[in-house]
Amino acid sequence: MNEKIVALEIDGVKIEAHEGATILEAASSAGIDIPNLCFLKGMSPYGACGVCVVEAEGSPKLLRACATPVREGMVINTKSERALKARKLAFELMMGDHDADCLGPCVLECPAHTQCQKYVKEIAEGRFADATATVMDTYPLPASIGRVCPHPCETACRRGKVESPISIAFLKAFAADTARKMGVFAPAGVIAESSCAGKKISIIGGGPAGLTAAYQLRRRGSEVTVYDQMPKMGGMLRYGIPEYRLPKAVLDEEISLISSMGVKLVNNFKIGKDAALSALRKECDALIVANGAWKSSSMGIPGEEAEGVFGGIDYLREQKRLAGRVAIVGGGNTAMDACRTAVRLGAEEVYVVYRRTRAEMPAEEIEIKEAEEEGVKFCFLRNPTEVIVEDGRVTGLSLQVMKLGQPDEKGRLRPVPVEGQVEKLPLEYVIMAIGQKNDSEGFESLKTTSRGTIATDSSMRASVAEDDGNSAPVFACGDAVNRGASIAIKAIAGANDAVDAVEAYFSGKDIPERIGTVSARESTRIDFSQYEKMPRQTPAVRDAEERKHDFSPVASIFTEEQAILEAKRCLECGCHDYSECKLIRYAKMLKTDCTRFRGEFHPGENERHLVAIERNQRKCIACNLCVRVCEEKAKKGLLGLVGRGFTTVIKPEFNNSEAIAGCAECNMCTLACPTGALRLLK
């Protein structure tokens, strides 16, 4: 007997469906996606989650698409304002009680959103090549960045609430070094169906931003050329970070890999000298400016122009041997690199002058500690007011004694002068390591900010004066744009954003959000006392008296045993099912506010009473899908709702060993769960 066919319209598309099919099934067969969480093909309708609501012409109320049969002549709108508002409300109510992490705090805190938790887990399992591939999906310099990154991911790491954060950066360097030794250090896979495929793209700047952009565009099939003014590629990784922190042989291998992909690298090429920016724009389909911040900032005090005064970045690039007394002004990592380099190049005495206290220094604590061990002397609460000069040469610094006053706009205690207290520090050299700025020579046609950096809009586009409309669009990223110089991983993040912007420009689509809507737990709701304390693994560090005389690496990389032990300390905060989670996928689509209805949470725990399955009650949305699958598909009926009202939870009921064995072999509920609340135990 032939089934009756029903004609209807969904979102303006005329379709046919079998009589008895639901609106959701009819829409799905036509390629129209209606959000749903409690529906599973082959099972009876349930309609618990309320996210599949649609508006039907002539109907006074919204209909649940998963439970409403189609009728002849129906006109359905799945995206009406009323339906979207109700759907979003349903998601906000669920997310308000979703006490779970979509992504680990480490991933969220990393500017490039590197999948830290994933590669740490892969290292814990001894899968070092896989771990390296995970990093290289985000950027091509894992061994270099693993050595030099100030790792904001570790600041966010919740293991620090137990004893010490995971050594995420060193683990990354270990994995990359191991992959290189194994001969499996390779680019991440080609990204198919990219609008950038076949496009000719020029990049100005061969630092971490430019190299990352080149790598990612090449993965998308673009013809890429990188132009750089220096003799070798690497930017500040090569010319701003000392050899003892980043061996240049490591950097060279990573750059060589980028070159082997077919990226053309052109050195000793300066815009404005070897070619005008306008000429380069006419030779490509898109241009990315990532020329960095190569000029050292000055303090604007008398005597700065004297012989013996250097900018911090200039000194690190030139690495002049300074035989005498040297003062480095500044408190960041550049100041630490400069003072430790001066020690290694034979300076008689090395001072660091900083206007706040040690507690306010932005440099990493390990850098400060190791500098002290190497003999660097710190002059805290001192601010230079004049470089003392005799016969055109530096003879000292005049220092205003400071004290800490009220907090500034960033919350740091503001240094204020102590009236009448000035000191003199006898010196032969001064290195100003107080910041970097963009060199605009050759880029005068690009609109700049009040900081002198290249101004970009939300699509990473730079504004070009007197644009004739026939030249390639200009995008910009890294230290050269907007707020200026920062850490390398931020430049890399900007490069990935610029690549997304170029992709969107060619495709005509919106730039995708890197993270968007996510659920995040509050640390105050976590009982960290449940975790066994495990000491943080630390690599071997050379003695200060030995290391301060050369540029060999200060610290070694982890051994394999250390790396695995360290990686196993990870608490695995982020959800194991994030990439497949229907709840967050639809929540992102609706730009759900996860905190709008935050209040009392359902009681939650991680239970393992299902023998082969772990159930996280904090992630459960009570869609009842697992209960129904166990009843209707598995024919077991081992799960059920326990309790009433707000405290209702889903619990197992194992009556005999046969039931336990059946659960261990089934796993249908884990496959059906739309939120990652169920996980198969290995």
List keywords for this structure.
682 residues, alpha/beta, Ubiquitin-like (UB roll), 5 domains, 5-stranded mixed beta sheet, 5-stranded parallel beta sheet, 22 helices
How do the strands and helices of this protein lay out in sequence?
Blueprint: E1 5-10, E2 13-18, H1 23-29, E3 53-56, E4 63-64, E5 75-77, H2 81-96, H3 105-109, H4 116-124, H5 128-136, H6 142-148, H7 152-156, H8 168-182, E6 200-204, H9 208-219, E7 223-227, H10 236-239, H11 248-260, E8 264-266, H12 277-281, E9 286-289, E10 295-296, E11 309-311, H13 312-318, E12 325-329, H14 333-344, E13 349-354, H15 365-373, E14 377-380, E15 382-390, E16 393-407, E17 413-426, E18 429-432, E19 436-437, E20 474-476, H16 488-507, H17 544-547, H18 560-567, H19 582-589, E21 606-607, E22 613-616, H20 625-633, E23 639-642, E24 649-652, H21 657-666, H22 668-672, E25 678-680
Parallel strand pairs: 1-5, 6-7, 6-9, 7-8, 9-20, 11-18, 12-13, 12-18, 13-14
Antiparallel strand pairs: 1-2, 3-4, 3-5, 10-19, 15-16, 16-17, 21-22, 22-25, 23-24
Helix pairs in contact: 4-5, 4-8, 4-18, 5-8, 6-8, 9-16, 13-14
